[in-house]
Amino acid sequence: MNPLFNLEELDRKTAVDTIGLTGKNILSVDQFDTELISKIFDRAREMRAMVNTVGGVDLLKGRVLAALFYEPSTRTSSSFIAAMERLGGSVIPITQGVKFSSVSKGETLADTVRTLEQYADAIVLRHPQVGAANLAGDYAHIPVLNAGDGAGEHPTQALLDLFTIREELGTLNGLKVAMIGDLKNGRTVHSLTKLLLHYNVSLRFVSPEILRMPLKIMNKVIDAGVNIRETHDVADVIENADVLYVTRVQKERFGDLAQYEEVKDHYVITSELIERAKEKMIIMHPLPRVGEIHYAVDNDPRAAYFRQVKNGMYIRMALLAAVLGEA
């Protein structure tokens, strides 16, 4: 049991919404500054203590979340569902079964959102098109949380990634963060990069030429004056990285499968490779992995990706409690 956990205090904080997100959409990491991030992290720690102590509470009893997933999802969908249920709420799951909903009949996203808001208090949306979450937010009269819009953004993933770095390494400043793999299509690295610009970090982008970080993101990094370097070789970053953030090559984003075959196995993190890494560093991955990290690496204490997964539930509990709190 965690002696720092106090259910009455957590209930009071949620009731007065000390974070300041009541009724608001969560669409982009551009919404967050360091003060707000710190508040969310504090609440996530309280949620972790609560789960470890009593498992769940009734903070959101009577509230309903509509989980609307137009793309496959394991971690994001299940963590949002678990987060809502641990807070005492319930879920309308339109996840892997979206093809069996009225979407298959040609219903527009706008009409689906306007229908679901008749039943739910918030909507979490994953969609293959960039900007879909913003569109849903324009039509909905209840909070919309972006769970990934194509190759655009994934703000809740970025928050849990940042939280993981903070909890694992004890700071968000003075770190060298290396991002590896599909940086062109990886919405997780797009969002995390933008969040990291709030802190004193150095960034290393490692990818094949055709999967480089988009120019729009690169310009933001340059404008922020952050120390940055691009390379095609993991060997250039492995010895100095504090964070090795690995991503899969996203087959579903390729129009030309021959190009995918050329780069799909470009980077593979092995036990032999990480022998060259710092003793105190972490390896992260938004998952799923498709061969880019050997299973033998899982036994290394620096492999943080499954702890990262668990942190997703705590961050999403904090956000759901905030957007559905009573001001």
Defining key terms:
single chain, 327 residues, Rossmann fold, 5-stranded parallel β-sheet, 4-stranded parallel β-sheet
Description:
The protein has 327 residues and is α/β, with parallel strands linked by helices. The chain folds into two domains: 7-153 and 312-323, Rossmann fold (3-Layer(aba) Sandwich); 155-309, Rossmann fold (3-Layer(aba) Sandwich). Helix content is 38%, strand content 14%. The chain contains eleven helices and nine strands. A five-stranded parallel β-sheet has the order 7-6-5-8-9, covered by helices on one side. α6 (155-169) crosses α11.
- Give the H and E element order: HHEHEHEHEHEHEHEEHHEH
Looking at the structure, what is the overall shape?
globular
Full CATH superfamily name of the largest domain: Aspartate/ornithine carbamoyltransferase
- Supply Rg: 20 Å
Terminal-residue CA separation: 30 Å
Helix proportion of residues, in percent?
Answer: 25-40%
CATH fold-level topology of the largest domain? Rossmann fold
Strand line-up of the largest beta sheet: 7-6-5-8-9
